[in-house]
Amino acid sequence: MLGGKHTQPTQRREGAERSRDERSTMDEVQPQIPPQDTPPPLDGPPTEAWESPPAPWALRDLFLLLVFVPIAFFIANILVFLGYALIQPTLHWHMTKEKLASDPFFLLALQTVFYVLMFAGIYVLVTVGHNQPFWDMLRWRRITPGKALVFLAGGAFLTVAIALLPPVLPDAGQFPLENLFNSRTAAYAIGVFAILGAPLMEEIIFRGVLFGIFEAQVGLRFAILTTAILFGGLHVPEYWGAWNHALLIFFVGLVFSLARGRSGSLAPSVFLHVGYNASMMIALFISTQHFRNLNACLGP
Q1: Is residue 104 a contact partner of residue 186, using CB atoms and an 8 Å limit?
Q2: What is the pLDDT of residues 203-247, one digit of tens each?
Q3: In whole angstroms, what is the distance from residue 137 CA to residue 211 CA?
Q4: CA distances, 292 to each of 194, 245, 286 (Å)
Q5: Residue 299: DSSP 8-state
Q6: Are the C-beta atoms of residues 238 and 259 closer than 8 Å to each other?
């Protein structure tokens, strides 16, 4: 009887130990399946998938832009000349091609149509060619109204600073841009275009597309300097002969490019540009007695 009582607990303990050994063996045999969709540890190095995507601009975009510019300019000329031919009999306008080439309203119409075509081409390039949101790819970042006012004031300050700089290069007594201010109506039209139209489109082209291409392909410093040079080159025909004015426009463009590079956004350069152009037109408006005395200010 005593022997049987001692045997049963011993057998139960041995059976329990055998069961634990069998479960341990089965766990070792079964393959360990890693958990699915496990995010990387927060303390570990970032994986390649977590890194920000590279800039999508490529040299192909520069080639397409350079090809499209003369095409858009050619189409703009055809459209504006066609529009003039349609309204000429009604308004009894009689101007030769030579006069049209220097007429401020014709030139403003031509530049407006050209900018509309350029905007459409860039929009297609971004949304269709790259399948990207338009303003995101141009690096437009929303800013607060307070910061917008600061940049507008910065553009006005830039106007004052440019006016105070001593001349370095020779300047002509009169240059092509001044010739466009041949009437009060023309002055008002140029002012509206210079404030509401030109800054946005010029910044989209230079600090949006070209800056993005140069920064992606070469680097930030190259993008800043090159877009400033190209921006100044765009305005050379307007200031032909007034080389000091052309040099100052290069420095203005350099400030715009620096703002784009430092902020990483297109918005600051746009507001700086608007502030600069607006302050220039306001100063001209005041100095010419509301555009009534343009000859006294701009010369013969």
Answers
A1: yes
A2: 999 999 999 999 999 999 999 999 999 999 999 999 888 888 899
A3: 11
A4: 19, 24, 10
A5: -
A6: no
CA 222 to CA 218: how far, in whole Å?
Answer: 6
Residue at 16: amino acid letter = A
User: pLDDT, tens digit, for every residue of 2-28?
Assistant: 444 455 555 555 555 555 555 555 555
C-beta separation of 270 from 200 below 8 A: yes
Distance CA 107, CA 113 (A): 10
Q: CA of 126: how far to CAs of 56, 57, 131, 138, in Å?
A: 10, 9, 6, 9
Distance CA 107, CA 194 (A): 13
What confidence category does residue 46 fall into, taking pLDDT thresholds of 50, 70 and 90?
very low
HSE-up of residue 262 (Cα within 13 Å, Cβ side): 8
**pTM of this structure:** 0.79
DSSP 168: -
- pLDDT tens across 181-202, in order? 989 999 999 999 999 999 999 9
Cα 9 to Cα 17, 18, 20, 118, distances in angstroms: 12, 14, 17, 94
How far from 100 is each of 84, 97, 110, 145, 240, CA to CA, in Å?
Answer: 10, 5, 11, 41, 19
